[in-house]
Amino acid sequence: MLRVDEQQQEVTFSPELVKQFDDIVSRYPAGKQKSALLPILHLVQAEYGWLSSKAMDKVAEYLKIQDIEVYEVATFYSMYFMRPQGKYVLEVCRTGPCGIVGAEKIMDHIEQTLGVKEGEVTSDGLFSWRGVECLAACGYGPVLQIGPEYTFYENLTNQSVDALIADLKVKARN
Amino acid sequence: MARKLLLTNINVPGINTFDVYRANGGYASVEKALKTMSPDEIVEEVKKSGLRGRGGAGFPTGMKWSFLAKPEGVARYLVCNADESEPGTFKDRYLMTYIPHLLIEGMIVASFALGAKTSYIYVRGEMMPQIRILEKAIAEAKNKGFLGKNILGTGYDLELYVQPGGGAYICGEETALLESLEGKRGNPRIKPPFPAIAGLYGCPTVVNNVESIAAVVPIINEGGEEYAKIGIGRSTGTKLISAGGNVKNPGVYEIDLGLPVEEFLYSDEYCGGIANGKRLKAVVAGGSSVPILPANLFLKTINNEPRLMSYESLADGGFVSGTMLGSGGFIAYDEDQCIVRNTWNFTRFYHHESCGQCSPCREGTGWMEKVLHRLEHGHGKLSDMDLLVDVSKKIEGNTICPLGDAAAWPVASAIRHFRDEFEWHVTNGAEAVTRNFGLAHYADPLPKKEETVA
Q1: Which residue, of B77, B374, B398, B443, has the greatest Cβ tally within 10 A?
Q2: What does the alpha-carbon distance between residue B320 and residue B412 come to, in Å, rounded to a whole number?
Q3: What is the predicted ipTM?
Q4: Shared-domain flag, residues B266 and B415
Q5: How many domains does chain A fold into?
């Protein structure tokens, strides 16, 4: 699962990124730097778009923990990507309350519009999408979020999804 | 208009900033608590208030605080549970987005009461915008001397940090949350020891929901006895209810506990009835984990008494004819909703979110999901309902944490109350794929409200 076919690039964290790591580590008592693992993985994913095993090894090295301690955490939590994604990952809530207000139809529409199945990346590398579980926005459904800022788009319709995708295409060009 | 305690100033422009929040009476409880009260007095006020944990379990907050061990020379921690992931619940997101300083204020008072020098707010990772909002609010409060060293010159030091999760429902369970905060997989711990004895980093720890912490502010400002005057019986104070599903006006409402459910559902002050003029079929009253009730049993108890939005009234009848207030995640289902499909959807959720530690939950949730999938898609058998009940009974009570129970209850209650709809999916398999069962005899017995209200 951790070995994806793509050639993995060597990873070196920039001094700015390491400074952010240091800042996070300072929030915990001495010797408890492992607490910084989840926030650091979010930063690494925001930087590279996903978590390659080489990036995770570097995180382990930085936190002075075993590689496996990073892998087991990264694979447990649903927000971390174990393979490359589109530049924009559309994550649609599919649980109960969103389900009864049309989340499945929105996912069908996204699949048709982008022309890729759940988890696949569009040929221009811009988009991938997936259904995710409850995002705690049940009164505003259907909803989707886009990382790494996790901006929310609420009360979705086919039209608003089309407009969003068009906007993102423009944004990617600039 | 009911009295509001938490959302009083929610519509004041700029209330998300320190200055506006402060100008509207914010941080008064910090001044009162740190300057005029001892930590034990604060715990006593919270006990008097009767405040019960707002995350779902409803355990008395003051009692939880009084259990905290206080060995010499060992750090104590307060951790706020902002992992809000119970389907149907979105009140904490609302509170943190629009009035973040209320949570910060409550955290300062609660940390002081518990003797914590470092406190964490564990926010689910998907709420990155809320994490940024809280970090900004913390920086503002620190800048004004309400956090950091020697707060308001009282000699009390407190550092407050926001910790993002990684996307896992299970981290709403307090020991899983602590594991996650330590940088590990969110596997719940075996209790005892409870976090009050050995929690974060093995130190005494209290974990409280966002809304519980926020409620400490009015309790300190006005006194526990005043707070306890609101509500009914052992359900004191106000509660944030997240209303979603097919209600006309979805949103977060602050209610006095004890409000009749009929008023909550149909009055224009709250949900405004069912959207699109449809009839109510069923309600999940407290987040996806609590038993689902058909409309008639939801509005009136088995003894034909009007049901109230309180811990006791919603639980009236036990699991045979009652449910739970839970986290206040209120989901209404109209006549067009399919209970089988909804149960399958919820079970898929629990299967996805099971941490995999305990076999009954890991295997049982997947098994139930598969059986419900075939029922929904017209390939079920009449024996499937008994099979589902059997599997759910073997999960319930046999797991380390309550996720197993949470997965079992929606299935068992759906079959208990909607068995004929499940059977119809088997006997009319082909038809069940193309249309829904409809309202049948589940309609609420009340006259159609849209007409009477208008």
Answers
A1: B77
A2: 10
A3: 0.95
A4: no
A5: 2
